[in-house]
């Protein structure tokens, strides 16, 4: 009997033929049979989506405001409009404070340049400092030391410390007045998107999942990225302040707040704080402003100093950085899922 060759098949033994996905991934069967099944992977992805939705709902629930009720408030300063409506100091609040100080005679504003290069040049006014609040007095001493002239670009760039100190004082004043509940936890849970991105990578690489579970994990990460920002919760007093600011906006836009030149001068800081500068010609229609033309020229007008000031102050830059950062993280999560599953 001739000897059996090493490569010959033994009697009764059949060769296993790899077909379809097994040819490309010969170990896929072991992964699915030992680590996780496709249905379990789908269930895990669906659970991640449900968990992300539950987290978003929880963050919305704990950030709800208390009902306003009957709370009596003193007259609010225009610089507090952002805290009352958004829960944080906005760049428009700083601009509104500058306009308020200029209307009251504590600052003098001159416009320089043309078009997009228009800017404000500010210096201390001749009004007595008796009517200044401690916050306003501290800001003027920091930003305009020795009564020197400062452009708005310099104020936003080189003297940002004075602006940041002003924002901190405004927030402290709102907290001291009882507008917000004490915050006992971080305002952002920044590690959740990275956990979901890592779980997607591990699931696709180790468990050999398909596209559908990977997309479910990616959807969970996207929901977590774009969930509403957790801000400080308003008290009844804070809700009343918000309603008071919104009522003032309604009065200005409804035509019941501006009737004379004195009304326009008094409400001009609120026009800035509420973002109504582009509608100033509409709001002041029928009011003779010839005696106060110089006062309003540095506020209104296309490409005016106020619009340039908002850009310099970072109003648009903050939004661009936040949206761009979230979009970048979302693209990274999607790229990881695509590369590992491909």
UniProtKB/TrEMBL annotation:
Q: Which InterPro entries match?
A: YciQ-like_C
Which sequence ranges are marked TM in the entry? Answer: 36-56, 194-220
Q: Where is the composition biased (Basic and acidic residues)?
A: 19-30
Q: Where is the composition biased (Low complexity)?
A: 1-10
Any signal peptide, and if so, which residues?
none
Q: Which UniProt keywords apply?
A: Membrane, Transmembrane, Transmembrane helix
Coiled-coil region list: none
- From what superkingdom does this record's organism come? Bacteria
Q: Which residues form the Predicted membrane protein YciQ-like C-terminal domain?
A: 74-253
Q: Where is this region: Disordered?
A: 1-30
The name of this protein is DUF2207 domain-containing protein
Q: Which organism is it from?
A: Arachnia propionica
